């Protein structure tokens, strides 16, 4: 019977098996995505697979919309990348992101179990999204992980570059995990966005599970009860710390998480800040050796949390399982209070009656987790900048002290203790007094005290969060550099903490304070202040966002495996800036830096270079005629000047040599010393110079620059680097000469990038004799700056005549100049029609819209029938639009000729033209200069006080370089004819740019002057202009007037008609130099530089044009390339010639009216000369003369 029953059940079993098979097949053919069976790392905003620096692989989240992958992205979002390519952390996953101003989510199909979720944020500007506008909520399943979270604010408050948030939740069977990112509404109603750079999901090993349910509870600190953490709770990792490794756990599971910090061995109490209003799970991991110690009973110890004992060695032994194992102990801490209260410290302590052999006893490490509230939220407010608070000593210290003092003879013990304490206190007071005496003896000078802020140590600790490791941005033999926040977080600074144990460090510390308090330059890093309390030596600098030049050339490239992102033009500008800073030190302050290297050249957010680290700087002996300083050799290997090493004689040329090494680093993208390569290539100078000598320059160029550098720019750059590295210091150029050549290399590069309409078959850069440069005369400098030879194919029309000059209108008639191909002195071919000009052509409607229909609110300037408007171009760029109405007298062909002229001008000190309009009006579009014209600064009682001397001097140098470009280095020899403060515009960096080329003319190679009508502004016109003769020397005369105005702060013709030129000659003759300097900068200017400027003013304003120096000779004097005696001899000669001319001249001088008429429209006549109405009116744009009358339009 049983057999029959079993036989009858057999078909049923078969049927059930077939049914199960069908069900399984049906499920398998369904479109449900497969589970992610292993851990996953998502590199958001990327595709494919990427490898991090640690070798870990990350997958991209850009997938097909039809994909049935276990990962799906939903909602509206964009992929974006960093605006700035440089990042200080691992590029994977921090280089790309997924971001959106609306909600988006990730859906994962995971295997069931506990999962660690890590969210990675890099709060930097992304394309299409602004920094500090991120504000969003993150939800995972039913839990709110973050709310009103701003990664930017959090990173700034914590002083870190990237943020990683780690959570733990439980995933049920067939339950997809949705991680949702939702932008929140900001209080200011600004548009906010959410973003994410990387997501990691890691399975928690069963041995380390955090959700034990009813199996194992966590002991509540301060109570005897247990709390069971189950799957309905989410956890956020607050801190994870490992103090030692141990083989107790199979596979070392605790180390797999890898997000811990290392604690110094002397620490047995750990403080960790946690948010108020949450419960915390504290898990202490135990080691095998510690358990054996606990079991032996030879050492007794106890574990305390928030000063309450939670476990002893006896309790731990009792808790071991049946196998004798105990991997960790869990405790639950409640931090009561309101969330708005911020954070409190959670203390974990280990106490013992005996010293542990390895100091940490049973501790292997610990973790602190925040537990979600009943509303399933882990969110807490964004952190604020840290503020140091005074905390009282814990009560347990007093308790232990009493316990330690107790015993058999309490009174005697107390007496001995008091005597010992008094002795210690007296000793410490004596040390403190000695330290104060040392500090008093080494106080900075009064000038340094005025210019540098003295910080208290408390302020420094607050700024660096007690010198937290997370704030470290650099280390070296000198000490450690921290990023800090001062003034309640309003200003970010760099804080250098020198090693207090170094006696040499003390000298360098005070040297740097004294040096940087004396110097102020845009290309030198600014010292904000210092701290020298309690034997600390701390310097506070301006914070340089983009790090060091070395970072960009090879350090970050080495870490990330990618080439440097610096372009050749950026590198040239960085070198020019650093060179200008060194030139200022050498010539303006007579200081030798002594440690020039790429890691001491810092870059701000605009990649403006600044020389830093003046600890080894050495001032030249001003009382000694020798050009060197005898001293011990100090500096950095790889940058040492061979002459300095062999003779111990330090000169300015030692800095020049080191700068030559930096130039090679910039070109090659390699460090000065690299011990990872062979001996022949270890030293960059040796390897690179060998390659150059063998004609293999192309083999040393950084691979990222191949195809970008123009051959001409490369030749100039390599040439100047070679000359800097000459073994004989006398053959090396000065830093001023280096800067001039680097600017020429930049011009060569820019001329290639401009896509000019030229027909240049070949170009040769002639080498410059450095011996002549070192002992340069004005003629040799002038010649050196123009040693460019262009060869040109034969022109189709050999009948090239000189252009004719017409006098039928007040403007130069350019027809003859531009209607054929003009061969300039450099044999360049200039464009012959507007179709050849690479400028944006606008229509009138576009310009009208950009200027708000030429609204009076947009009007920023007017004069001479011309108006200037502020405009916002369609691209969003702010520009200036100059309108030339018909009343201005400018013909269309003259306007077109002017466009052709200015389209060729490309120089940092020449205003840049962005476009033009000729349909419906004549308009020019320029770059907008935020700081307006120079005259509004130097002639304003308030603003001129803000023009400190270094800035004035830089403006003078910039104007001179701009004029030299027009006279010598542009495609044509251009005379501006309008050099005056009103035509010098200042950008955001107060960099001067020459503007207003409406009156400019050009000259042929074989002519030095030309006869023409006089056009210009009275007070700046050279004497020969009144006779109708104009030359390059006319601009030099005007420049001399401008220099004197900048130095003195006076107008050339000001109150009571004081003639500034006459006043200068008079005071100089009687050696009353201070009277020629603006009183607002008395006591805060370089006497040497001011004297050179006044001497230049005298030389430039000589009556005879041929007595004046060329503009290149002027620049040579200003930069200190001429010796003081040479310059003084030239001035003495000028005075002698002036006296001779006054005795012998029979010319009629121009007399100005005693009471200038306010009526600009009147015309005055005189039989012998012209008398002008109100010639010093600032509103007069130009003055022209027709035979015997003068008018001011």
From TrEMBL:
Its EC number is 2.7.11.1. It holds the Pfam family PK_Tyr_Ser-Thr. PROSITE patterns: PROTEIN_KINASE_ATP, PROTEIN_KINASE_DOM, PROTEIN_KINASE_ST. It catalyses: L-threonyl-[protein] + ATP = O-phospho-L-threonyl-[protein] + ADP + H(+); L-seryl-[protein] + ATP = O-phospho-L-seryl-[protein] + ADP + H(+). One of its GO terms (molecular function) is ATP binding. One of its GO terms (cellular component) is plasma membrane. This is non-specific serine/threonine protein kinase. It comes from Penstemon smallii.
């Amino acid at each position: 019977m049983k057999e029959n029953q079993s036989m009858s059940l057999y078909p049923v079993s078969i049927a059930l098996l077939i049914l199960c098979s069908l069900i399984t097949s049906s499920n398998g053919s369904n479109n449900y995505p497969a589970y992610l069976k292993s851990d996953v790392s998502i590199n958001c905003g990327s595709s494919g697979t990427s490898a991090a620096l640690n070798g870990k692989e990350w997958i991209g989240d850009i997938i097909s919309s039809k994909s049935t992958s276990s990962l799906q992205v939903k909602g509206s979002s964009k992929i974006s990348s960093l605006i700035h390519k440089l990042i200080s952390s691992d590029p994977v996953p921090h280089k790309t992101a997924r971001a959106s101003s609306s909600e988006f989510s990730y859906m994962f199909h995971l295997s069931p179990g506990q999962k660690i979720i890590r969210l990675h944020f890099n709060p930097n500007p992304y394309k299409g999204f602004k920094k500090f506008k991120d504000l969003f909520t993150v939800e995972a399943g039913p839990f709110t992980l973050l709310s009103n979270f701003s990664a930017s604010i959090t990173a700034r408050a914590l002083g870190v570059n990237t943020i990683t948030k780690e959570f733990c939740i439980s995933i049920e069977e067939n339950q997809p995990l949705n991680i949702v990112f939702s932008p929140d509404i900001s209080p200011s109603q600004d548009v906010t966005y959410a973003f994410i750079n990387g997501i990691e999901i890691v399975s928690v090993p069963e041995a380390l599970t955090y959700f034990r349910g009813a199996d194992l509870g966590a002991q509540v600190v301060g109570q005897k009860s247990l709390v069971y953490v189950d799957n309905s709770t989410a956890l956020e990792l607050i801190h994870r710390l490992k103090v030692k490794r141990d083989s107790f756990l199979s596979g070392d599971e605790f180390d797999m998480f890898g997000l811990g910090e290392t604690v110094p061995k002397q620490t047995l109490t750990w403080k960790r800040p946690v948010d108020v209003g949450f419960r915390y799970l504290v898990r202490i991991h135990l080691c095998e050796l510690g358990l054996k110690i606990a079991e032996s009973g030879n050492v007794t110890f106890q574990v305390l949390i928030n000063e309450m004992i939670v476990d002893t060695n006896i309790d731990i032994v009792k808790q071991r399982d049946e196998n004798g194992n105990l991997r960790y102990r869990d405790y639950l801490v409640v931090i009561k209070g309101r969330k708005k209260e911020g954070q409190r410290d959670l203390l974990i302590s280990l106490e013992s009656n005996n010293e542990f052999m390895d100091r940490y006893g049973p501790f292997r490490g610990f973790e602190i987790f925040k537990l979600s509230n009943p509303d399933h939220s882990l969110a807490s407010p964004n952190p604020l900048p840290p503020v140091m608070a005074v905390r009282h000593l814990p009560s347990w210290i007093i308790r232990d002290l009493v316990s330690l003092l107790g015993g058999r003879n309490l009174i005697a013990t107390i007496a001995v203790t008091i005597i010992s304490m008094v002795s210690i206190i007296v000793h410490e007071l004596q040390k403190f007094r000695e330290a104060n005496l040392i500090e008093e003896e080494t106080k900075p000078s009064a000038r340094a005290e005025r210019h540098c802020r003295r910080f208290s140590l408390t302020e420094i600790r607050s700024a660096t969060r007690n010198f937290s490791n997370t704030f470290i941005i650099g280390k070296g033999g000198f000490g450690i550099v921290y990023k800090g926040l001062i003034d309640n977080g309003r200003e970010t600074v760099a804080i250098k903490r020198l090693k207090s144990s170094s006696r040499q460090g003390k000298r360098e510390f005070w040297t740097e304070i004294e040096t940087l308090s004396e110097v102020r330059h845009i290309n030198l890093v600014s010292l904000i202040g210092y701290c020298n309390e309690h034997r600390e030596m701390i310097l506070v600098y301006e914070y340089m966002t983009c790090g060091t030049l070395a970072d960009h050339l090879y350090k970050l490239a080495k870490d990330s495996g990618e080439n440097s992102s610096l372009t050749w033009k950026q590198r040239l500008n960085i070198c020019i800036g650093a060179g200008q800073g060194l030139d200022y030190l050498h010539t303006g302050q007579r200081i030798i830096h002594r440690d020039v290297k790429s890691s001491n050249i810092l870059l701000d957010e605009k990649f403006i270079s600044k020389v830093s680290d003046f600890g080894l700087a050495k001032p030249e002996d001003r009382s000694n005629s020798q050009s060197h300083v005898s001293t011990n050799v100090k500096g950095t290997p790889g940058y040492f000047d061979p002459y300095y090493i062999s003779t111990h004689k330090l000169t300015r040329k030692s800095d020049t040599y080191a700068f030559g090494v930096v130039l090679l680093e910039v070109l090659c993208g390699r460090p000065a010393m690299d011990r990872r390569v062979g001996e022949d290539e270890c030293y960059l100078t040796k390897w690179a110079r060998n390659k150059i000598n063998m004609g293999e320059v192309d083999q040393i160029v950084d691979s990222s620059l191949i195809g970008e550098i123009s051959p001409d720019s490369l030749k100039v750059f390599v040439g100047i680097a070679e000359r800097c590295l000459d073994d004989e210091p006398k053959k090396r150029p000065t830093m001023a000469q280096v800067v001039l050549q680097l600017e020429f290399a930049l011009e060569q590069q820019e001329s290639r990038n401009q896509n000019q309409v030229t027909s240049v078959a070949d170009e040769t850069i002639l080498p410059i004799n450095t011996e002549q440069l070192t002992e340069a005369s004005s003629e040799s400098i002038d010649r050196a700056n123009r040693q460019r030879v262009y060869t040109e194919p034969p022109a189709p029309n050999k009948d090239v005549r000189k252009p004719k000059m017409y006098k039928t209108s007040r403007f130069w008639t350019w027809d003859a100049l531009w209607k054929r191909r003009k061969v300039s002195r450099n044999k360049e071919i200039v464009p012959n029609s507007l179709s050849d000009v690479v400028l944006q052509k606008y229509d009138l409607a576009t310009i009208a819209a950009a200027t708000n229909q030429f609204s009076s609110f947009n009007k920023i300037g007017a004069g001479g029938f011309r108006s200037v408007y502020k405009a916002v171009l369609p691209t969003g760029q702010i520009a200036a639009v100059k309108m030339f109405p018909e009343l201005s007298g400018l013909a269309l062909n003259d306007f077109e000729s002017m466009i052709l002229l200015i389209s060729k001008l490309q120089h940092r000190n020449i205003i840049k033209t962005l476009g033009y309009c000729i349909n419906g009006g004549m308009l020019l579009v320029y770059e907008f200069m935020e700081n307006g014209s120079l005259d509004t600064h130097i002639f304003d009682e308030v603003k001129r006080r803000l023009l400190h001397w270094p800035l004035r001097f830089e403006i003078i140098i910039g104007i001179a370089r701009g004029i030299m470009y027009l006279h010598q280095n542009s495609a044509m020899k251009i005379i501006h004819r309008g050099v005056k403060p009103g035509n010098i515009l200042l950008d955001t960096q107060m960099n001067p740019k020459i503007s207003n080329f409406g009156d400019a003319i050009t000259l042929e190679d074989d002519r030095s002057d030309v006869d023409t009508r006089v056009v210009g502004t009275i007070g700046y016109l050279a004497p020969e202009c009144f006779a109708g003769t104009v030359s390059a020397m006319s601009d030099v005369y005007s420049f001399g007037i401008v220099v004197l105005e900048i130095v003195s702060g006076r107008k050339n013709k000001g109150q009571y008609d004081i003639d500034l030129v006459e006043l200068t000659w008079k005071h100089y003759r009687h050696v009353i130099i201070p009277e020629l300097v603006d009183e607002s900068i008395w006591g805060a200017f370089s006497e040497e530089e001011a004297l050179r400027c006044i001497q230049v003013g005298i030389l430039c304003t000589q009556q005879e044009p041929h007595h004046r120096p060329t503009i290149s000779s002027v620049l040579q004097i200003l930069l200190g390339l001429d010796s003081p005696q040479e310059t003084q001899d030239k001035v003495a000669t000028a005075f002698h010639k002036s006296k001779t001319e006054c005795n012998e001249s029979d010319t009629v001088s121009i007399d100005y009216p005693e009471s200038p008429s306010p009526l600009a429209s009147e015309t005055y006549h005189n039989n012998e000369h012209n008398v002008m109405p109100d010639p010093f009116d600032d509103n007069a744009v130009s003055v022209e003369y027709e035979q015997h009358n003068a008018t001011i339009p």
